[in-house]
Amino acid sequence: MSAILLIGAGRMGAALARGWIAEGRGPAIAVIEPQPDPAFARALKKAGGRLNPKPAAVAPPSAVVLAVKPQMLEGVAREAARYAAAKPVFVSIAAGVSLARLQSFLGERAAIVRAMPNLPASIGAGVTVAAANGAVTGAQRRLAGALLGAAGDLEWLADETPIDAVTAVSGSGPAYVFLLVEALAAAGIEAGLAPDLAMRLARRTIVGSGALLAALPDQQAEKLRRDVTSPGGTTEAALGVLMAEKGLAALMAKAVKAAVKRARDLGK
Ligand SMILES: NC(=O)c1ccc[n+]([C@@H]2O[C@H](COP(=O)([O-])OP(=O)(O)OC[C@H]3O[C@@H](n4cnc5c(N)ncnc54)[C@H](OP(=O)(O)O)[C@@H]3O)[C@@H](O)[C@H]2O)c1
What pTM value is reported for the model? Predict the structure, then answer.
């Protein structure tokens, strides 16, 4: 089994590793994490994985996954370059850090995959977008794909150019959906609902609508929206406001643009 070294087991790193454990890769996993979550540490141990082994005791890895915050990445990646002799594929999930910068930390000939997962990965329902540099072999791409795919769906990009837009759509997107729950609940309270009931209704509506999208993968969201909108009805009245010229689409476009700009600035 390919030896996997995970550096950083916070929210995202631990979510990925849980996926690998579920696939039976436990004994092949080594994790470096200064403050491991106790439940994760137990799950890793039970699966036969190793926590914080000394560098000399780490089996030559086939994959090194870097899952620390972008601010920590340079130091951690320069340290991880020590594993380059084993010719692993390095996988980074740090927002805004380009393949060229990763290469400058890990070595010009390092095989590197840059990926952008999102929060639902923590329950195996994420979507990850990945791009590889020219040094990544077919086998390394399959291994990186299997590791990233353990947390949900995976899409490959031919090059990394659109990844800032990916960050702005699927990376940050879960927060937009949570805000929608908050806003819908607040509007419900304003319309006369008890706060608890408003929050339950808003939450269940988003959860149920998401489940419906998941259950009907061939149905366009637009078709589902049209189906639920009777002419002259209540939904149409509300959508008239949301879809007005400066409505939700304009606001969303502005929000995504701001996130793209921030991703670019962070990557400088
Ligand atoms: N969360 C998301 O929704 C999301 C989505 C897409 C991409 N990402 C990317 O995923 C990366 C990780 O994010 P996260 O939310 O999982 O962050 P996080 O929860 O803070 O996890 C990072 C972990 O790495 C540990 N760490 C720090 N320095 C280390 C070192 N030298 N060696 C080993 N481990 C070290 C941290 O420990 P300490 O707490 O002790 O510092 C922490 O537990 C980020 O680059 C982020 O851009 C996150």
Answer: 0.90
